[in-house]
Design a protein that fits this description.
Elements: E1 4-5, H1 13-16, E2 19-27, H2 31-38, E3 53-56, E4 67-71, E5 78-87, E6 91-99, E7 104-116, E8 119-130, H3 135-149, H4 151-162
Antiparallel strand pairs: 1-6, 2-8, 3-4, 4-5, 5-6, 6-7, 7-8
Length: about 160
């Protein structure tokens, strides 16, 4: 498989990227349960997002510098990710450092887990900067992407309702 390098990102990218989507959902489980799921071997794949593969490339314990590889549904795209923030039990953020298709220049995600009443407020943020060749395509498809990305927090809610 050919891998294309992506630009590294930091916290500022979540404010400056051309496409930023942020979603919050209230989950009826404690923050420790949400965090345990996020760092499990299955992680987001367990939530029913249809990921073809999610593999941690770095041994435990995880922290800043941890890497993983994710293959999206149907094998449409594979991304290798590196975590640049890791606040154990509360927050983690990564950027894609390689992808198997040259569709984006930069890509990052942030996962925030906060205690909220008798449960957890989970906030997921995704930030994307397309390449020059895909800029128009991503701009036109942004409303669809916004709806598609909304599936992540909704799947989290369904998962934790079944697996408290």
């Amino acid at each position: 498989m050919t891998w294309y390098p992506l630009q590294p990102c930091d916290e500022a990218f979540f404010r400056t990227a051309p496409h930023v989507h942020r979603y919050s959902v209230q989950l009826a489980v404690p923050p420790e349960r949400v965090w345990a799921s996020l760092v499990s071997d299955g992680a987001l794949a367990d939530w029913g997002l249809g990921l073809k593969k999610l593999e941690w490339l770095t041994p435990r314990p995880f922290g800043v510098g941890t890497r993983r590889e994710v293959v999206l549904p149907g094998g449409a795209m594979a991304v290798r990710e590196q975590f640049f923030r890791w606040d154990e039990g509360r927050r983690k953020s990564f950027y894609g450092y390689e992808a198997n298709r040259p569709l984006v220049r930069a890509f990052a995600e942030d996962y925030l887990v906060e205690e909220s009443g008798s449960g957890t407020k989970f906030t997921w943020t995704i930030a994307v900067e397309p390449t020059a060749k895909t800029r128009l395509l991503l701009t036109v498809s942004d409303p669809f992407n916004r709806l598609a990305f909304r599936a992540m927090p909704m799947r989290a809610k369904a998962y934790f309702a079944k697996h408290p």
